[in-house]
Each structure stands twice: as structure tokens, then as C-alpha cells.
Amino acid sequence: MNDVSAPPESRPGPPPYDAVVLAGGAARRFGADKLATLVDGVPMLDRVLASVAGAQRRVVVGPERETAAEVVWTREDPPGSGPANAVVAGLRACAAPYAVLLAGDLPYVDAATVARLLEALVADPTADGVMLVDDDGRDQHLCSAWRRAALERAVAARPDWGGAAVRRLIAPLSTTTLAAQGREARDIDRPEDLTSSS
């Protein structure tokens, strides 16, 4: 029988988490609804959602689309008011002690990526969050795992996050990074990004 009284950090396996996938944006450089684009025969958004199949709840922030996954849809208020506001909207639908934040245009992220992020977070009790860093040394704020309570403290720091970047929202938090492996941190902005070398 599972010991449900034990804290998440002491239980075997990944800790209980919800996933927030940002799926808004105009995709002007892509020229179409890029999240519906097939990557190895699977829509990009479905690939991202498959990486968090172990989440207690998968929350997608953006206009509703067809998807094979069971998800909770929500929108930032007002729609189009920026990625930090989208994270805020997604968090409102979360209840698990951990939250994974993903951009909807990361088709090469997978369950192993998510597991590494969560494992690193649980292993470091001083960290509020863990994010991937790509080959160019850029922190991937939307490929990250967080203690939900820490994110909510950051959200409470100001009444309106409209127009703000995610990096501003998480700036006060204690974070660590993991080096990306292969293509997992590659986001897709243009069609040619899907055919360029890894």
C-alpha cells in the first residue's frame, strides 16, 4: 500500500505534478498554426502533451484545438497579453505540488526530459525551479519544472503580469539549470527549423 502521508520528495518515482503548456502566440514567422504541424506524423502540440502524460492535469493555455490528449483549456486574460500572463492563467488550473512549464513548440521534448527536470528539482531542496539550458547557453524558461508554491509567490508579487516575459516572473526565484540533450530544447519558429540538422 502506498504511504500517502509521506512528503512527495520521499516517495519513489516522479513527484506529483501538473503541466502547463503555452499554446498561444500568433506564429507569424511560421505562417500557419504551427502547433498543428505534423512532426514525424504527430501534431506538434500532441507531441508536447505526450511528454507530460504522467501529469495529474495537463493545462493548455491558448485557443482550443483538436488534440488526442485529455486536457484542460484556459486562456490568459485578456487573450494575447503575453507569456507571463499565460503562465498565471495556467497555474490557476493547477493543484499538484509541482508544475512543469512547456512551450507548445518544443516537439522534441519527451518524457525523459520531464523526468530529468523533476528529478533534479526534487534532489535540490534549495531550488524553486530547474530549467534546461540550450547549446547556445540560453535558459529555456518554458522547458522547466517548479515548486508550484514558489511560482505562486512570484505571481503574487504584482497584480498584473500583462505584457511581461516569463523571465521577469521567475526572476526572484532560486533556479538551477540542466544542459539540454540532443534536440529537446529546440523550439520551432519557422518551417525550416524542422528540417535543419540537430
TrEMBL record:
A GO molecular function held by the record: nucleotidyltransferase activity
The entry's keywords: Cytoplasm, GTP-binding, Magnesium, Metal-binding, Molybdenum cofactor biosynthesis, Nucleotide-binding, Nucleotidyltransferase, Transferase
Annotated ranges, domain MobA-like NTP transferase: 19-171
PANTHER family for the chain: MOLYBDENUM COFACTOR GUANYLYLTRANSFERASE
Name of this protein: Molybdenum cofactor guanylyltransferase
